[in-house]
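User: Run a structure prediction on this.
Assistant: Running it now.
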Amino acid sequence: MGYVLLHSDYPVSELTDTWDDVGGVKDKLYVVQTPAKMIKRCILMTTDPGDLVLDPTCGGGTTAYVAEQWGRRWITIDTSRVAIALARQSLLTAKYDYYELADGGTSPGDGFVYKPVLHITLRHIAQNQALDPIFERWEPVLAEKLAGLDAALRQVTPDIRTRLQTKLVEKERTQGKRAITDVDRRRWLLPKDKWEEWEVPFDTDPDWPQALQDGLNDYRQAWRRKMDEVNDTVTASAPHETLVDQPRVVRNVLRVSGPFTVEGVQPAEETLDLESPIGGEPEELETFPAPADEPANAEAYLEKMIRLLREDGVRFPNNRVQKFESLEPLPHSVLQAEGVWTNGLPDGTRRVAVAFGPQYGPITAKQVEECLREAYRRAYDDLIFAGFTIDGAAQAIIQEDPNPKVRCHLAHIRPDVNMGDLLKTTPSSQLFTVFGLPRVKLERSQEGEWVVEMEGVDIYDPVTNTTQATGADKVAAWFLDGDYDGRTFCISQAFFPDSTAWNRLARALKSVVDPERFAAFSGTRSLPFPTGEHKRAAVKVIGPRGNDVMRVLRLDGEVTYG
């Protein structure tokens, strides 16, 4: 045997390209959620603290969560509101260890202090010239101790040797041959005259003569002092490996997610039949060729939407589905389709118009205004706005529409409709889902400031001709803009009514954050706010599906109700 590698020489193992210790996620928040351990390894292998991590398929937000945990900046993108809502909730309720920063730094970009580990190889022993003086100095000392040990060996009688050998035989009989170790043989099988250096026992036996026990203890003490010097010399010359997955944790310090924003990147405003009034958009980038059946123009896109809507219908609360008896394209109009609802309606047949938003963009205020006028002129009973998203100004116009004869419905189109052949349509596809308007109460305090109480969301159900009122407990989050300018929603207050997600973080922060303030954070009642320049406030509610709906409130000096 040329060399014995001890575990303490290099107590870690290098990762290969086969990771057999990474399994699936047990309690998934998202259908395609990736294990955090796998993402952690990828991030630690390829980035340093402070680097930027991009995840173009957010999903459940695991990449953002892990990047935040290990001090990386991050950007994550998704077309699904559900994915964004889950990722936001996961980050807001997360708590992490606080890592010690290198060289007294002030941000993760300065690096962390990591746990080092020795990496001792045969080269650091065989080619270490600093060991030669140690061996030369200790050789006569150990020779003297060994001579004394050999002298004491002569005091061992045949009776003692027999008792020692009997112990070895008894252990082998009761525990088996594999239980006998080299330590046992050295202790119980004593030589006749003397020991070689490599045969000296490691411990004593009570049946040994006292002089022999004392001699072995003296020898092993000298041998241990020699080995301590050898180990110190080898350790001093061996390099250290940095374990980038084991930064030094600062005890009694809790870290939460840093500030981040959730932004919607929308294309320039456009309609299906008019050129965009906004110019200057970048030229189209070269990319992979589109599938042959993917809509290449507005006409093909509309044909596809009308076909899917005719097949799937519109889904209302409690999984009620309103199917069309007929649904046909409507040429030469700002409205794209017209149809008839009859099944189960208490007031008989209702004529329905449908307006689709752009394939890659929101339903805009201009489109809503034109469609409302056209629907009233043609005397439709219902008007459906179906789009992948609808901007705040368009929602405000629908809310303030003075014509009660045309009832409007906002239907969210599932984002993967744009995935072509990957779209799987089943009876439970839920491609078109109606969402309503927030139900809020506006109060004015004696100090002249305003308070908004969010009570839930109202959704009209044409199947039963009633308004379904969902409670605040079904709301994932709601936001307040205390001075809404009619176009841009700026969050001034944010609330997350589902308090169950905050319980763990609340317990961790109970000694840092006022419990009453934390309870208000998950409440349904806003903090007081003054009347702004535009004398309007807006409330945006995020539903369980990630859909956002908005209501505009006029701050005209009187108590009003939304």
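Residues 266-274+292-435 form a domain with the Restriction Endonuclease fold (CATH 3.40.91).
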